[in-house]
Each structure stands twice: as C-alpha cells, then as structure tokens.
User: Which sequence fits this backbone?
C-alpha cells in the first residue's frame, strides 16, 4: 500500500507543480495583456494628438490658400473693371463715326431708289 500512496503522492506533486505553472503562466499572460493594453492606450492618445495636429496644419494651409485666392480675385475684379471701362471708352470713341459712316453709305446707295419711287408716286 505504501507504493500506492507513494504513487498518489507523486501524482499530487505533479498536479501541484502543473497548477503552480498554470498559475504562473496565467499571471505572466495577464501582465503581458496589461502592458499591451497600456501601450495601446498610449498609442491611441498619440494618434489622436497627431490627427489633431495634422488637421490644424491642413486647416491653416487651406486658409492660406483661400486667402491667396481671395487676394487674386480682388485684383481680378479691378482688372475686369479696368478692361470694361477701356472697352466702353473705345466704343464711345469709335462707334459713333462708324455708325455715321455706315448710315451715310446706306443713304447714298438708297437715295436714288427712294427718289425713283417718290417720282413714280407723284402725279404728273
């Protein structure tokens, strides 16, 4: 019977060693998971800071581009107004003589026809 008790005792020692190893492995895994969780939390905070910094920088760059475009458009408005004023002045200067010349040519070419029609309609 001594050998049966010795065998049971040896098996209990083996079970006890396995239980201790299991507890130690479980503790090790728990520590690793905790460290990973902490590292993920730090990475998350760092990523949020980077995203905010990037968003602010992009927003500032976009605002600068919009300001430059607005300044260019302000200059464009003045250029368009100058061009319109120049065109209007040119039309006011060049159009009346052109119209007068065209009307004179029209009257000169149509005057004989109108005279003939008028003569035909006058009683003799």
Assistant:
């Amino acid at each position: 019977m001594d050998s049966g008790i010795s065998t049971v005792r040896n098996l209990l020692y083996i079970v006890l060693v396995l239980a201790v190893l299991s507890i130690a492995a479980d503790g090790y895994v728990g520590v690793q998971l905790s460290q990973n969780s902490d590292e993920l939390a730090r990475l998350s905070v760092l990523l949020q800071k980077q995203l905010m910094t990037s968003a602010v920088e992009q927003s500032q760059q976009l605002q600068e581009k919009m300001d430059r475009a607005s300044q260019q458009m302000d200059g464009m408005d003045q250029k368009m107004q100058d061009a319109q004023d120049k065109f209007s002045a040119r039309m006011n200067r060049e159009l009346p003589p052109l119209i007068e010349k065209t009307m004179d040519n029209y009257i000169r070419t149509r005057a004989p026809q109108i005279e003939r029609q008028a003569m035909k309609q006058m009683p003799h």
